[in-house]
Structure formats: C-alpha cells, structure tokens
Amino acid sequence: MPYLAHFGLREHPFTLTPNTNQYYPIEKHVEIIQSIHFGIARNTGILKVVGDVGTGKTMLCRLLLRKLVGANDAVAYLNAPQVDPDSLVGLVAAEFGLEPGTKAQMLQALNAFLLEQHALGRNAVLIVDEAQALGAAGLEAIRLLSNLETERNKLLQIVMFGQSELDDLLMQPGLRQINQRIGFAFNTGPLTLVEAVDYVGHRVRVSRIEKVEFPIFTPAAMSLLAQSANFVPRVINILADKALLVAYGEGAIQVTDAHVEVAVDDSPQIARRLGIKRRWIRQLLVGLIAAEAAAVAAMFVLSPGLQGWAKAQAGRLPIITKLMHVPVPPSPPVASAASAATPTAP
User: Fold this and answer.
1) Same domain, 197 and 252
2) Strand partners, 255
3) Shortest CA distance to 239 belongs to which of 251, 225, 258, 221?
4) Domains: count for the chain
5) What does DSSP assign to residue 334?
6) In the chain, which stretches have pLDDT less than 50?
C-alpha cells in the first residue's frame, strides 16, 4: 500500500480496533491486569474496571482474555450484552460450550460444569465488556450467577469492564447487594504527557518495516497530538491517523505540528483546538516583529543620528526572529558622508 510504504510502515499504527500486538504497557494498566489476576487467584468473585470512553478498557479486556486462555482457564466473554435476565444464564452457558435448554436446565448444567472445572484446578472466568449495557436487571442476574459456589470457594469469577454509567447503576439502592460483592474495583483514565508521547512513538515503532527508523512525528507534533486529544488514547489514534494522511497528501515523510493542526480542525467534536490558538498568537507576534523591523529601518534612513540606536535594535532582532522563524528584513542602504558630498555626474 503506497501510504504505508511512504512512511516505512508494514501496518497501520493507529487503528481504532484494539490490537494487543501494538499494546503500549502503561504502568497503571499493567497494575490493573496484575491485580485482576491476583483477584481471580484469590477467588474474589466479582471485579470491576471502569473508565471513560477511549481510555483503554477494551484493550485491557483483550489482554486479560489472551492471558487467561493461555493459562488454560475456562473463559466466557460477553460484549455489551443487551439481553433479558432470563436469557443471560443461557448466554453464559453457551459461551462455555454447554448445550441449550430451559433456564433451569442451563443453570444446572452450568453449575455442574463449574464444579468440574474447580475439581480440575482450573479457573472459570466470565468477562463482561461494556457491562453498563446490562442495565439494573442484568446486573442482578450477574449477582445470582456469583452465588454459584462451594462451601469455601466461588465457582465463577466475574470481571466487569464498563463506562462511568456502570458506577451510576451500581449506586442504585436495589443493586446494593452486587455492589457489596465487588472485591476489587479499578479505574482507567487519560495518559500523562510523557506516557502519551511514548505511546505515539511505541505504536510507530512496532508497526515499522524492519530497519526503517527515521522519526515519523516531530516532538512538537507528538506533544500537540497528546494535548489536543486530552491525553485519551483513542482520540490520539484518530488524530495521529488523520495527521499521517495530511502529511502523505503533501508528500512529506514527517508529520509536523502543522499537519496535526489540520487533523484537529477536522475533528472539532473530539479534539481541543489548541493549534488555532497557537497559530493566532504566532501570527500576532510575527506582525509585531515585522512592524518593529520596519520602524527601525525608517529611523535609520530618516535620522542618521540614531544609527547607533538602530544598530543596537537590529542586533536584537535576529534573536527574536530566529525563534519565530521569520527572516530578518534587509537593512536599507545608507549613504556615506563622502558619497553624499560627491556631485553626481550630469
């Protein structure tokens, strides 16, 4: 694909679908995964992970799934289950590979299956992504499933991933029983500036063609990406992908902050328009410097007595204009006293 080859990439680095091969191990996320494993091993029963949209919950969910399957545990996975409570038991049983039947039959078969896994020393884990979609009735059904236990152990470990609406649901008086059974609760959130910049760099590195190492994003571009996205990974992905397309359209092999500004302009619903403010301030300062340079040049011509002062000002200008990337205006020619005294030939 020409777009990928242009930047020396073998795959798209900023897709919206969570790709565990591109996962950047943020310290807080690593701690959450480790804590969930500890909670499962400790036979906690119900664990909860809540965070705003785009802060990495689904990626954590996929990582957990991969680890549990790799450990040969029995795993059932539900994604945004919008079913009536009576159907939830059948849905979970089906995920564990059990035959369909009535609710009572499915519950009995599920209990027998969980006892078998317990006897084999295997964990049985139910992972629910977008758990806020369950609603109050669905969460109550989850509580009933958590009642499957022996005298000493919970037979089913349940991990719920959800948006902040999940916490709002659990605050309802009718759901206080399940709320009290949550052994561990974790929260995801935005990245720090350092994490966000490292995140962009990591996604690029793991997507590169071997031995291709030139930097695709300038440091200023990565910083602007992070701030404009409010440090949210999903929004960073969207803006970074757009900025790459803008740079590709211009034939540039490096994404600058100017390309990021275009991406931000194209995403007003999700991005902070920091670039517009920066550009306005820069244009204002450029105008002020240009006006000062013109004033110095005029004084230089009109008042030779002020040449010393003007030269001092001109000596200051290159420092400012270099910082602003504005060329210093050429000084006007000044006639010497000797040339002024020499008459012009007719």
Assistant:
1) yes
2) 217
3) 225
4) 3
5) -
6) 275-277, 280-286, 289, 296, 300, 306, 309-310, 316-329, 331, 334-346
Do 175 and 311 lie in a common domain? no
- Report the pLDDT value the prediction gives residue 291, as an integer from 0 to 100: 56
Chain position carrying tokens 């949550």: 182
CA distances for 175 relative to 170, 210, 245, angstroms: 6, 53, 48
Answer with the one of 222, 248, 272 that is the final residue of a domain: 272
Asked which of 152, 167, 187 is the last residue of a domain, the reply is 187
Q: What is the pLDDT of residue 334?
A: 47
For residues 57 and 132, membership in a common domain is answered with yes
Q: Are strands 46-50 and 74-79 parallel, antiparallel or unpaired?
A: unpaired
- The residue type of 172 is Q
At residue 214's C-alpha, the angle toward residues 211 and 215, to 5°, is: 130
230, two tokens: 């409010």
In this prediction, residue 303 carries a pLDDT of: 55
Q: What is the C-alpha separation between 238 and 234, in angstroms, rounded?
A: 6
Sign of torsion over alpha carbons 132, 136, 139, 141 = negative
Do 142 and 207 lie in a common domain?
A: no
pLDDT at 299 (0 to 100): 52
**Cβ neighbours for 151, distance < 8 A, ≥ 6 positions apart:** none
Global pTM reads 0.76
Q: Which pLDDT does position 146 carry in this prediction?
A: 92
**Does some domain include residue 144?**
yes
Cα separation of 332 and 162, whole Å? 68
Looking at the structure, do residues 244 and 204 belong to the same domain, yes or no?
Answer: yes
Domain of residue 242, CATH code: 1.10.8.60
- Residue range(s) defining the domain that contains residue 296: 285-330
Helices (H), strands (E): how many in the chain? 15, 5
